Amino acid sequence: MTKVSDVYKYIDSFAPFRTQDSWDNSGLLAGDENAQVHKALVALDAENRIIDEAHREGCELLITHHPVIFHPLKTVCFDDPAGRLVRYGMSCICAHTNLDSAQYGISDMMLYRLGFKNCHELVQINRRDSLSDRAVGYGAIGECSEMTPEELAKLCAERFRCVAIKYVAGKRNIKRVGVISGAGGDGIFDAKRLGLDAYITAEVKHHEFLEAERIGVTLIDAGHYETEIIAAEYLKQKLEKEFSDVSFVTSGEGTTIKTVK
Hints:
GO terms for molecular function: metal ion binding. By secondary structure, the protein is α/β, with parallel strands linked by helices. 33% of the residues lie in helices and 27% in strands. It has ten helices and eleven strands. The strands form two sheets. The chain has a six-stranded mixed beta sheet with strand order 5-6-8-9-10-7, sandwiched between helices. A five-stranded mixed beta sheet has the order 1-4-3-2-11, sandwiched between helices. The protein starts with a helix and ends in an 11-residue tail after the last strand.
């Protein structure tokens, strides 16, 4: 019978928790590592409505990308996510920056969703996975058939199911693209240094758009939720192949953030 610790160890095998950023809080953040798992819900966030959904589904385990506990807690109440997990006796594993920077991590999933090829890492950060001696980095670079900035923006809107999208067009058509899931607007400077035609990320600041326009690189803000929700389906597919005795489901709640066009 599969235990919470078995799921944790498997995630650790392809997205080592030791590689998470120093400010992050990935890992088994609630529950019992020895608890048996028959059903697990996979989601982007561990919000109350997601935890309630997992409880309704009869799940013993919730697996999310964003940590349920990020800052030190002074109280634990049943109306808060951490307290809700305690109330339901549910375990929670969170794989955040360790999954972002993993080989075949979320940025690679973005390129796969876009149909691009010849992928490699975009940003190398100054640390290594000491056990595998692999450089740990964020983002990925892919190649595509030549297209205009507007065509790439429309492709992103379609493949990431964006209600709306923001972008600035560069000075040339696009063949080589960099991506970083989630908030990565400052990666525009790496995109310029690496000679990329376009850069796709989320939570882009006003001055980052202006900088992209100045240096002639197409910059697309495809949304934090939209660029990272793909991680839930990716994790579900990997986990259900590894644990045949566990039913893995993705959250059907979606995002509560609304966009008016």
